[in-house]
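Please go through the protein record below and explain what the tokens say about the fold. Record follows.
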Amino acid sequence: MTEIRESECTDGHIDFLTDMIYEAIYMPDNKPEKQKLLREPHLIKYSKHWGKPGDKAFFAYDGNGLPVGAAWYRLFPEEEKGYGFIDEETPELGIAITDTARGKGLGEALMKRLIQAAQEEGRPALSLSVDSANEKALALYKKLGFIVVDDSGSSWTMKIDCRQRCKSE
């Protein structure tokens, strides 16, 4: 049985979240090692100083209490835009599930919980960036009600409006 809980910003949680941030970067071929990739100037913003206002994360735990997935969002200022940036009021989200836990509905459960949290906080929307070739992720996002708002060729920015009843409910 899995359990979903909001993450606390303790060292162990930050380490797992960093692992999941790395896993969320879709690179089917020649993916650099975690420490090198996450230090890239265009990616470091996703993991540094985690726990600042506007950050939110949920972890999924397996029956043994081990974390097996995470979904998170974070606000970015205009001058430090993420790949799924829409505006400074719209958090950009990410999600990843460990290899051994994929295909069991955890991604959808985590996303629903994250969308619910955004609604409870009064967030206007959530956004994300997804590789247009990542068919499984696209199917999940569309199922939950995300729509494409920008197409940059191989990367799409998608958004869900949280002021209305989301499909996650």
User: Anything to note?
Assistant: The first helix runs from residue 11 to 24. The helical segments are 11-24, 34-38, 106-120, 135-144.
